[in-house]
Amino acid sequence: MKNIVMLVVVLLLFALVGCRPSVMKYGEPIESNGTFPTESTDVTSSTDPGYIPADLEHGIKSAYLSQYVKDANYSDQDIRIRYYGSYEGVHVCFLDGVFDYPAWETEEIIAGLTFRYSSGQKLMVYSDGNILELTKAYEAGWFSADALSQLLDYYKTVHFYLFEE
């Protein structure tokens, strides 16, 4: 009996891993460059709304690795970007792949606006070779309250389930 239970558990684990989709966001496949397709607000270098120019993608990943990840065993290839667009010249995204985050809902209030997350992971903001968490970037004056409001409006369309009452 014990062997049967172990076999069933192993089969279920293989089924879960085998069924893990390559689709990570909203039913759209991951792009070949490792980014997630999203809509953006300012990025106009391509007709693809999830397009991130290679130099921007490299800059975001390099800044994140140098400022937040001190382990030299990680590289650009270990990071995926979920891009939320450009607001007043700064780029907003989630960076996945290096850290694990507990799966519980969190929120942060910035300038009276509430951002809700499905984990402890925070939005990151990239500008001119530097990267900060959303709150710190706003407090540092990287973008205005109007841009923050525009970001939240877009963020709510993507993560509507976090804002249902």
The share of residues in extended strands comes to 15-25%
Strand element count: 9
User: How many helix segments?
Assistant: 4
Radius of gyration: 18 Å
Measured distance between first and last alpha carbons: 46 Å
> Taking strands numbered 1, 2, ... along the chain, how are they ordered across the largest sheet?
3-4-5-8-9
The stretches of 5 or more residues where confidence is low (pLDDT under 50) are: 13-47
Q: Mean of residue pLDDT?
A: 77
Q: What string gives the helices and strands in order? A: HEEEHEEEEEEHH
Shape label: globular
Structural class: alpha+beta
Helical fraction equals 25-40%
How is the main sheet built?
Answer: 5 strands, mixed
Describe this structure in words.
With 165 residues, the chain is α+β, with helices and mostly antiparallel strands. It has helices at residues 2-18, 54-68, 134-139, 145-158; strands at 23-25, 28-29, 35-36, 80-87, 90-96, 106-110, 113-117, 124-127, 130-133. The chain has a five-stranded mixed β-sheet, sandwiched between helices. A two-stranded antiparallel sheet has the order 1-2. It has a two-stranded antiparallel sheet with strand order 6-7. The radius of gyration is 18 Å and the shape is globular.
Secondary structure blueprint with pairings:
Layout: H1 2-18, E1 23-25, E2 28-29, E3 35-36, H2 54-68, E4 80-87, E5 90-96, E6 106-110, E7 113-117, E8 124-127, E9 130-133, H3 134-139, H4 145-158
Parallel strand pairs: 3-4
Antiparallel strand pairs: 1-2, 4-5, 5-8, 6-7, 8-9
Question: Descriptors for this entry?
Answer:
165 residues; 32% helix; 4 helices; five-stranded mixed beta sheet; globular; alpha+beta; two-stranded antiparallel sheet
